[in-house]
Amino acid sequence: MKYLNFLFIFLLTLSFSGEIIEVSALELQGTTTACLVSTQDSDNAKKDYNTTFIDITDGSTVEVFNHNDKMIYLTEEDVYLISQIVFAESKGEPYEGKVAVASVILNRVLDPAFPSTVKDVVFQTNAFSCVLDGKITVTPNQECFNAVYEAIKGNDPTNEALFFYNPTIATCSWMHDIKKTDSRSIGQHLFFKV
C-alpha cells in the first residue's frame, strides 16, 4: 500500500511539475518513506532549483496543489476542512463562488503573509466568520468537495485573491474601508487583494 501511495504522489507531482530534474526515493528497511522532487524553471538561466521534501510515511497526503512552482501537499483532513469552510461561507452561492472560497484558502497557504498550512490559515484569528461564530462544525455536501477539488486542480476564478466578503451583510469596517485591488464579484461575495 505504501508503494501505491508513493506512486500516486509521484505521478501527481509529475503531472503538476515543470521539468523534473531529479526524483529519488529514500528507502528505510525496504519501505519507501519519502520522495525528494526537484524542479527547474527552464526560463531561469541560473538554474534556480525548488526542492520539496514530501513525507509520506503516514500515507495521509491525498492531493497536491501546484501553483507558480509552489506546492501544497494536502491531507484528507485539509480537504475536509476546506470543504467545511466552503459550505459555511458560501452556502447559497453559485458553484463558481464555492470554488473561489476554496481558492482563497489555497492562495493564503501559498502567500508568505499567511500561515503555511490549511489548518493554520482556517483557524487564524478573525480569518473566517464561520470559525468565529461556530458554524464550521457543518457537514459539507458533495458540491463543496467538488469545488475544493476544482480549486486544487488550479481553477481559480478569483485571480489569486486573498480576501473575500459579502459587502451587503459584512460588519467588519476593515473590509469596507481597505483599498482593494484585482477585485471580482462572484455571487454575493467580493474577492480581492490588498
From TrEMBL:
Gene3D superfamilies attached to this UniProt entry: 6.20.240.60, Cell wall hydrolase SleB, domain 1
Domain Cell wall hydrolase SleB residues, every copy: 92-192
Molecular function per GO: hydrolase activity
Lineage: Bacteria, Bacillati, Bacillota, Clostridia, Eubacteriales
Pfam families referenced in this protein's UniProt entry, alphabetically: Hydrolase_2
Keywords: Hydrolase
Keyword presence, RNA-binding: no
Alphabetized InterPro entries for the sequence: Cell_wall_hydrolase_SleB, SleB_dom1
Official protein name in the record: Cell wall hydrolase
Species for this entry: Clostridium gasigenes
